[in-house]
Design a protein that fits this description.
about 30% helix; 9 strands; about 270 residues; Rossmann fold; alpha/beta
Length: about 270
Amino acid sequence: MKEAVDLLTKRLNGRAPRLALVLGSGLGGLVDEVTDAVRIPYSELPGFPQSGVTGHAGTLVAGDLAGRPVIVLAGRAHYYEHGDPAAMRPALEVLAGIGITSLILTNAAGSLKAEMPPGSVMLIEDHINFSGASPLIGEGTDRRFVGMSEAYDVDLRTALEKAAEKAGMTLHKGVYMWFAGPNFETPAEIRMARTMGADAVGMSTVPEVILARFLGLRVAACSVITNLAAGMAAGELSHEETKDMAPVGGEKLARMLRRFFTEGLADV
């Protein structure tokens, strides 16, 4: 980690961002709005994971977004790629090591609510770790017993709600359920998820939330809805649909994040 922290600190050339974004499938377009940008492929950062999923660039971008310093991780590694829920731990440890204090995660997800159709954005209020895996398995200290009662920071969530209101967009709120993937869920699993209180389902984010809380970072997360979940619409689900629909909600998410930065809400 020290090697990666030293390398990144040198490349930042005096920048001192306190907030980082992780962009999910099909949401990488936001990095094009980062100005005065330094782009570093994950392959050049020791310990950073390599993603083999189309729609995940695997690049760290540091610069200014709407006039505020930020680091953007364009792409992530997934549990279903490596069988390792801690695949993103080195990257998040490096972010914490250079002084990042707040993390906003994004993902593409399936909706369990007809009133939250594809193209919507959902602010995650809580999650259900249905996979049962934890990125802290094997951690040898008592730090592994991380409290998750307030995993998603209230102040960050409030700031994002205000940003959505100022951007004139509807921001749904709900519970995200993490399935291991990479296969999509069955209609029976979706009925179960709805009964258990989930509003959206996906294959990422939850391990990063656990790791971020372990590292002492404040966390917020948003899902871009790319499809109605299995059994709710005709036809089979596909990753192509995810990639095609992510930019639709991604444009709304980008509009909200611009407001989040320009209105000073990122300073909470």
